[in-house]
Amino acid sequence: MARDTTDTQPIEGIDELVGYLAAGNKPREKWRIGTEHEKFPFYVDGNAPVPYGGERGIRAILEGMQEKLGWDPIMDAGRIIGLVEPTGQGAISLEPGGQFELSGAPLESIHQTCREGNAHLAQVREIAEPLGIRFLGLGGSPKWSLADTPKMPKSRYEIMTRYMPKVGTKGLDMMYRTCTIQVNLDFESETDMRRKMQVSLKLQPLSTALFANSPFTESRPNGLQSWRGDIWRDTDNQRSGMLEFCFSPDFGFADYVEWALDVPMYFVIRDGHYHDMTRYTFRQFMAGAARNEVPDGLPTMGDWANHLSTLFPDVRLKRFLEMRGADGGPWRRICALPAFWVGLLYDEQALDAAEALTSSWTHKEALAMRNAVPELGIGAPFRNATLRDVARDVLAISRMGLKNRAKKNRDGYDETSFLNTLDEVVARGTTSAEEMLSAYHTRWGGSIEPVFMEYAY
């Protein structure tokens, strides 16, 4: 999330919180595609991480991008930590370890999404390359230890860094050493939201498998295909995971609100200052628990919006749905991830087919897939088959959905070609992670350094 919210409207009751989510309902003609992607900056000389400050640091990249794009700076305690397009059509932000993120504009087609991503990568290369900096498209930092990894000066991250070790063993790895590609998609009603939430939760392990791209940690194979996927198994299970209550046939906005109310908070913002609220749930905050501890210690709608942004389930509900299962990857994956989900969820025939395919899948089965995928990728078992077999059916449905959408570029091609990179994974039976591991043991000569050349932007 590029910028935290400061909406000061007071909250009168829980119905307002439910209404906040329901306000995301949009007619189909207004559905859009918002793609986010993160990448690791590194110095070409030595493949070292890039700190925030200095003449060749991340701040210099942000200042160069600001000058080039004319976007408004996002400031935190006087330091530039991101940029936002003045009309809200996109933003650039920093993850805790310096991961550079584009939060894309809400667009109508994957063609537009791919052009946006390519333009962003060209722009950031133009600024970064004279500084000796490039960017790495992987799901996990392959070389640097936590101690080696720089910390970005964002107030919310200082609070999270103190809190994470209290609630899981891998939260700091999640913050500082992972990258993702994510797509944000709309719904037209509570029923539509429920269908999309349930289908996408069940299929999120498949997304993790298809995009598995983080097999190295601290310069060695880590025994996993998606280290990032494994990290999320013990980051903070109060606020993350495959939410079982979402599998209910009558799941709705109110159920998500009731869950979110009982998740510990991270912070509230008052007069530009971040106050640590990790000792309270939002329900306790609404009951007045912090009335005498922070200025204006009663909750606002801005506090609620910010709290929703600190929840990390595999599919996150805000005023849209966020698909959160995929590792970061090469540029082709930036286009493939939104194509995969748009094909499944934005065409009624495809959504019907995906719903029929997954209707009998239980939470227990989906969770077992989620737990197996980090190690086994598309070879993870499911019933009497593997996820590779499931992927063939799911990709066929997604391709049908994209074909039905009939969103064509200037040359007359529809969006189905963006799935080709995923078709290749299924056809060869190996993930990107497995291809990297094969290279490591053969032509890379037991070194991970070539990854900085072959997977760099």
From TrEMBL:
Record GO terms (molecular function): glutamate-cysteine ligase activity
InterPro entries, sorted: GCL_bact_plant, GCS2, Gln_synth/guanido_kin_cat_dom, Glut_cys_lig_pln_type
UniProt keywords, alphabetically: ATP-binding, Disulfide bond, Glutathione biosynthesis, Ligase, Nucleotide-binding, Transit peptide
This protein's record includes keyword Oxidoreductase: no
Stored Pfam families: GCS2
Reactions mediated catalytically: L-cysteine + L-glutamate + ATP = gamma-L-glutamyl-L-cysteine + ADP + phosphate + H(+)
Assembly notes: Homodimer or monomer when oxidized or reduced, respectively.
Membership in a protein family: Belongs to the glutamate--cysteine ligase type 2 family. EgtA subfamily. Belongs to the carboxylate-amine ligase family. Glutamate--cysteine ligase type 2 subfamily.
Protein name: Glutamate--cysteine ligase
